[in-house]
Amino acid sequence: MAKKIIPLTDRQIKGAKPKDKAYKLFDGQGLFLLVNKTGGKLWRLKYKSPLNGKERTYSIGSYPDITLVVARAKRQELREKIANGIDPMEEKKENKVKKAQEEIKKSDTFQKVSEEYFNFIQSSLSQSHLNRQKARLKNDIYPYIGNTPISEVNRTDIINAVKKIEERGAIETAHRVYALCNSVFKYAVANEKLPHNIMADIDKKHILQTPTKQNYPTITEPKEIKYLLEAIESYKGEAITRYALQLLPYVVSRPGNFRAMKWEDIDFKNSQWIIPGNEMKVKIKKKDTNEYQPHIVPLSKQAMKIIKELQPLTSDSTYVFHSSLSKHRPMSDNTLNTALKRLGYKGQMNPHSFRAMFSTIAHEHIDKHSFHSGVIERQLAHKETNKVKSAYDHSEYLPQRKKLMQWWADWLDEVKSR
Question: CATH second-level architecture of 10-105?
Answer without folding.
Answer: 2-Layer Sandwich (3.30)
